[in-house]
Amino acid sequence: MAIWPYNKPPQTPGDIMDAAEQFRILRDWEKAQDKIMFRDKEVLANPVPSLNDMIGFRMRWHGPTPFRHLNAVRDNETVFVFIIHDGKSVTLEDAYDMFPSDALITKLRLLL
């Protein structure tokens, strides 16, 4: 199949067929991309990452956290991060507008 040049109108019936075929290929590719991007129903239901996800992104975790338990909770303008690691509990605080700040991420890295 020849690639139809979009900068000039189709000249022959073959050009018209090529343009229609290219349109079908593009449409099928876009449908496939939609299926790939939105196959996870949780992504559609909750497109905004949670506070725990935000910590995971900054820490570059590709799976479960290395801590026994980690949970971040927002209270007004402060985020509290509750951690259980090596049988000990730790509570860290961070400002919501800076969350997760470099200082919080550094504290988490020091715990590991």
Strand order of the largest sheet: 1-2-3
Overall geometric form: elongated
The computed structural class is alpha+beta
Number of helices: 4
Helix content: 40-55%
Count of separate structural domains: 2
Strand percentage lies at: 15-25%
Spans of at least 5 consecutive residues whose pLDDT stays below 50 are: none
User: H/E series, N to C?
Assistant: HHHEEEH
Kindly state the mean pLDDT as a whole number? 76
Distance between the termini: 57 Å
Q: Largest sheet, if any? A: 3 strands, antiparallel
- Taking all Cα atoms into account, the compactness measure Rg is 25 Å
Brief digest:
This protein has 112 residues and is an alpha+beta fold.
Describe this structure in words.
The protein contains four helices and three strands. The mean pLDDT is 76. The chain is elongated and about 75 Å long. It folds into two domains: 13-44; 48-111, no CATH class. It has helices spanning 13-37, 41-45, 51-59, 102-111; strands at 69-75, 78-85, 88-95. By secondary structure, the chain is an alpha+beta fold. The protein has a three-stranded antiparallel β-sheet with strand order 1-2-3, with helices on one face.
